[in-house]
Amino acid sequence: MVEDRTKFEQFMEKMVGDMGAAISAALVTLGDRLGLYKALAQGGPATSEELAQRTGCAERYLREWLAAQAAAGYVTFDKASGHYSLDEVQRQAFAAEGNPGFMPGFFQVLASMFRDEPKIAEAFRSGRGVGWHEHDVALFHGTERFFRPNYAAHLVADWIPALEGVRAKLEQGANVADVGCGHGSSTLILAKAFPRSRFFGFDYHGPSIERARELAKAEGLAGRVTFETAAAKTYPGRNYDLVTFFDCLHDMGDPAGAAAHVRRSLEKDGTWMVVEPFANDRTEDNLNPVGRIFYAASTMICTPASLSQEVGLGLGAQAGETRLTEVIKAGGFTRVRRAAETPFNIVLEARP
């Protein structure tokens, strides 16, 4: 029996909030898959009957979904008219694909974590890893949709200018390797911004490279962007002016070995840009809402990925700048500094 009733009630209130957030996740992916948010955004306020006419979905299901979304604060309900709608913030979060703050991609990642839970449970027991390629396909598509808006908002406007001399090189014409590129979002954003440069995207996951090639062709960039299946320690090419790692170094089994390969592949005055999840160096300083998300993702995705590879260092998504710098310098770099940061990322500049 809990003696401190107030403390117990406060904790239960927190649990109700957490349960509401968790159970709403499936409804977000459902609304995204069926185009319900976009139908509300494009067509304006609607009753469940009107939304059924727009989407071809059954009214009775929509009635329940809309009420749940209104209770979550994800849509707005006008009791006078009985209409549901999206205000500007809600529209940005759920219906504005590619814009900063667009959330359905994250919920796809979350869905993959639930589907992969049996694999991770077995990994807990055995100590073995679970490779990126072994996860549910929702992880790959969700990662693309979730990370791309953040890169679009900061990469060209903030992060590249923060690197010493890099913007000028890109404008004049540079060779760039984007390692761990996934579906190529970061590669394509850079290619659009710097048409005189050549870009080479590498990832060990074949299906992701296929998707990246499709996107490059669709955006008319296939002539200046090359995507190839290759690992971080063996990707081809030399004399790159810039090598980039976006939110992937901590996933690698041998990040120091990857750093050494980057060092060998760079021009003498080249730059390695390492973008990683924001983290402080001490665990106690990461026990906050952002750290909560990153530690959870690290448990289910990042650490298992590292442990599935040779060395299996298991940095985790909250390694922190000091530990990351140690790994980078172990690969032969002598200068490492924090060039930029957001609430969700730190950007490290490494030089030979």
Structural class: alpha/beta
CATH architecture of the largest domain: 3-Layer(aba) Sandwich
Strand portion, in percent?
A: 15-25%
- Report low-confidence residues grouped into runs of 5 or more: none
Summarize this structure briefly.
With 352 residues, the protein is α/β, with parallel strands linked by helices.
Plain-language structure description:
With 352 residues, the protein is an alpha/beta fold. Helices cover 52% and strands 16% of the residues. The protein is built from 13 helices and nine strands. The chain has helices at 5-34, 36-43, 48-55, 59-72, 88-94, 104-126, 137-159, 166-172, 185-193, 206-218, 255-265, 289-307, 321-330, and strands at residues 76-78, 83-85, 175-179, 198-203, 225-229, 240-246, 266-277, 335-341, 345-351. The chain has a seven-stranded mixed beta sheet with strand order 5-4-3-6-7-9-8, sandwiched between helices. It has a two-stranded antiparallel sheet with strand order 1-2. Helix 10 (206-218) links the parallel strand 4 (198-203) and strand 5 (225-229).
Features:
352 residues; alpha/beta; Arc Repressor Mutant, subunit A; Rossmann fold; two-stranded antiparallel sheet
